[in-house]
Amino acid sequence: MTGDMRVLVFDGPHQFHIERRPRPRPGPGEVRLRMAYVGICGSDLHGYTGESGRRLPGMIMGHEASGWVEATGPEVKGLGIGTPVTFNPSLPCDGACGHRFENHCPVLRVIGVAPDIQGAFADAIVVPATRVVKLGDLGMLWGAGVEPMAVALQAARRARVQPGQDVLVVGGGMIGQSIAQTCRLEGAASVSVSDPIPARRTLARAGGFKALEPDQVEEAGPFDVSFDAVGITATAYATIQAIPKGAVACFVGLGQPEVSIPLFDVVVSERMIVGSFCYPDAVFEEVRDHLASGRLDLDPLIGSVESFEDTAQAFEDLASGARTDAKIMMSTGLGAPTDA
């Protein structure tokens, strides 16, 4: 397919516009993907409102996506036109830095987050062939959910969740609900999700987790491990104070670029704080397999699927609190390409 395509351009806080641009051509080692579904990430939302400062005007967001191979550049093999795929949006170096895990590369960049790399809120995107992951038996809608669930599994691994532990997740959005699932996958005895929004507590209960209002956390604890899936000062405090001495609090959410923490509670009680960002390649592909097998479940987390034209309004509805969906997906409305 040639010609132009639609892109959703971020103009600054609370502003998008749709424009048409030439369809990009894949270069050596690159693949052009025709987008099917793209998820609105919490980090996209915080960039949209201006809270985090991690999205810049003029860029095209989007790093949770699925689609089909539409065209391949020279030197690309094994990716036929029409192959259903997702892509790992993390772009590490070629290994020259000596990184052991891809997400530890000091020059790591992320598609749809780095302002000069086009993201997935578009009809098509060009990515390195090495970042393309075939979906196999996994459906296209769930394929766009591999990325956030990979964030969640990496967080559970970073916190070293062990069988039999009691876990607290502060924040019941997409990442928080996904962390709850991956902690259960890792063998946690119980998982509690804290959120002030009733609909998200209901979602947690429907998933088989305990649901807590923020003021119920202290009485319900202490917990063996805790996660902050929001990333603001209030949730940082709650996450640290919910665990006993020597335990681990894992920070995943990036709601604000800086937060305050109760330093006394960390130092005197020797609580351990770990960060979790992105995932190694192996974790991304493992999540694809867990979703395909049904060991992880995206159905209750996907609130709605919006058209390309309605996606900007979905962002605003989430920002204003008019909607509380854990995950909203954009559909391009396009079908799979063929060789013909």
Strand composition percent: 25-35%
The number of distinct β-strands equals: 17
Counting helices, strands and paired strands, the structural category is: alpha/beta
Low-confidence stretches: none
Distance between the termini: 10 Å
Number of helices: 10
Mean of all residue-level pLDDT scores: 95
Q: Which H/E pattern describes the elements?
A: EEEHEEEEEEHHEHEHEHEHEHEHEHE
Q: How helical, in percent, are the residues? A: 25-40%
Which overall shape is indicated by the principal axes computed on the Cα atoms?
globular
Radius of gyration, taken over Cα atoms and rounded to an integer in Å:
20 Å
Largest sheet: 7 strands, mixed
How does this model look, in words?
With 340 residues, the protein is an alpha/beta fold. The protein contains 10 helices and 17 strands. Strands 3, 4, 5, 8, 9, 16 and 17 form a 7-stranded mixed beta sheet that branches. Strands 12-11-10-13-14-15 form a 6-stranded parallel beta sheet, with helices on both faces. A two-stranded antiparallel sheet has the order 1-2. Helix 4 links the parallel strand 10 and strand 11. It starts with a strand and ends in a 9-residue tail after the last strand. The mean pLDDT is 95.
